[in-house]
Known about the structure:
This protein is an alpha+beta fold. It is 26% helix and 31% strand. The protein is globular.
Amino acid sequence: MSKFLAKIPGEQSWREVELTTYRELDEFVGGRADVIPLSMGINLYMNDGLITKIESQPFNFCLSLNSYVSPIYGNVVVASEGESDDIVPLNQEQTKHLYASSHAMTLPSGLKIMHLCPSGFRLEHIEPLRMLGEVLRETVTTNNQVSDSDFVAAWTGEGNNNHESNWK
């Protein structure tokens, strides 16, 4: 058995989970696992959205890669690749980097979220994070799910009428 670091929606920190097969990984993320390469050989495994719609899962955290900020939904696992393309737990250096890249944020509404920024925080992340916070505050209040298209619409100013008032 191997212990991997995972993040579960509603929890503010990483935790260890035991996974032994790709099937267990798929079950943990709530569908077929897809990989997003982060940095330092760290991969983020999350639901690929083909079997279970990603936005039907609870919001987990914000991920900033390069100049993009994206909401991440559902359970996720972080791991590295072994010599034979299998997944292996992070080494000590990768684990330190993951924790140094994970920041707890408190939004004006009082909602606490995690922001994962493996390539370093940049000033251009502030505005999309603020907008996502506005969308999430509405989500928490009305119990609606926020889709990536809602987030993109908020970022580009092409929001639908349901959320437009919260993005001003």
